Inverse folding.
């Protein structure tokens, strides 16, 4: 597996996990748990977007 393929796999895994967390949040009856799951899902989406842009060479990581 090349470095690019590994990065794409990791990005896909982050997005899948974010989707699962968002679905769990929608099903949660507890407001605090729903908010926690939504925050985690948003963070994973943000992380996957940043990694995707870095892999494409669009941005560089903060130093």
């Amino acid at each position: 597996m090349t470095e690019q393929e590994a990065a794409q796999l990791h990005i896909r895994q982050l997005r899948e996990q974010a989707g699962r967390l968002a679905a769990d949040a929608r099903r949660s009856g507890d407001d605090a748990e729903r908010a926690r799951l939504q925050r985690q899902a948003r963070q994973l989406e943000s992380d996957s977007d940043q990694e995707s842009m870095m892999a494409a060479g669009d941005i560089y990581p903060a130093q």
Remarks:
- Residues 3-56 form one domain.
- The chain has one domain: 3-56.
- The chain has two helices and no strands.
- The mean pLDDT is 90.
